[in-house]
Specification:
single chain, 238 residues, mainly alpha, two-stranded antiparallel sheet, 9 helices, 3% strand
Length: 238
């Protein structure tokens, strides 16, 4: 199966899982998806592929869904809920970093066949996780802050709190992703790859983020519709 098709299917699956989690479990479902995506992205980002004519790391889509989740939480559950998702991601990254490194302290038995593979995969994760931890905290908090700044602007400018969701969604995410991509590329790969490769990683990552950011807008609208429906049911019962 072509890499391009796998990436497209991944976007649909991951974004769909976030919406399904919100539909079934509410904001708790989004917290769970955010934590899982943060941990898996730190592993997946070590893989390099070629897709759409660009050399790129995996993990971009998993990182992108965390921005979708904070936007949904900001829109439907409030700024505090969005910040909680960010704090949960930071905590889970620290927990995973400590735990994954402890695995390599064990002395494997003579019958073990997995330890060499574990060391190959997870010997690179400390730098990746530390880089993503710092970048995640900075870019996500900035994204939440910027989302609400855009919200105040659209409400004041157009006199309606609900209109122009697409503007605050894309206005916050596209700008935040520049910061996210630049910082992560520098922290995670500087010294590992040459400058042309770093530039290629940055450009390809941001192109992917543009695509995923624009694609996530319908999912934010769908999440708000789910929230409104739940709210109207609760109001009818009261």
């Amino acid at each position: 199966m072509p890499n391009e098709l796998i990436l497209i299917c991944s976007v649909v699956f991951i974004y769909g899982a976030a919406i399904l989690g919100y539909l079934i479990f509410g904001k708790t479902g989004l917290y769970c998806i955010s934590v899982i995506a943060t941990i898996l992205a730190n592993i997946e980002v070590t893989i390099m592929i070629n897709a759409f004519g660009m050399e790129q790391t995996l993990g971009n889509i998993l990182f992108a869904v965390t921005f979708l989740i904070t936007d949904i939480l900001s829109e439907c559950e409030g700024k505090k809920a969005a910040q909680t998702a960010v704090y949960a991601g930071i905590f889970s990254s620290i927990f995973f970093l400590v735990l994954s490194q402890s695995w390599m302290l064990y002395t494997p038995s003579s019958a073990d066949t997995m330890m060499p593979s574990i060391k190959t995969v997870f010997s690179n994760t400390p730098r990746m996780i530390l880089a993503s931890l710092v970048v995640y905290a900075i870019s996500q908090m900035f994204d939440v802050w910027l989302y609400h700044k855009w919200w105040k602007f659209t409400e004041k400018k157009f006199g309606n709190k609900r209109k122009f969701l697409w503007l605050r969604n894309n206005g916050s995410t596209l700008i935040s992703q520049i910061l996210n991509t630049a910082l992560f590329t520098a922290f995670a790969f500087l010294g590992t790859y040459d400058i042309p490769t770093l530039i290629s990683i940055f450009l390809s990552s941001y192109v992917i983020y543009i695509f995923t950011s624009l694609l996530d807008t319908p999912f934010v609208y769908l999440a708000r519709k789910i929230h409104d429906k739940k709210l109207s049911k609760e109001t009818a019962k009261a």
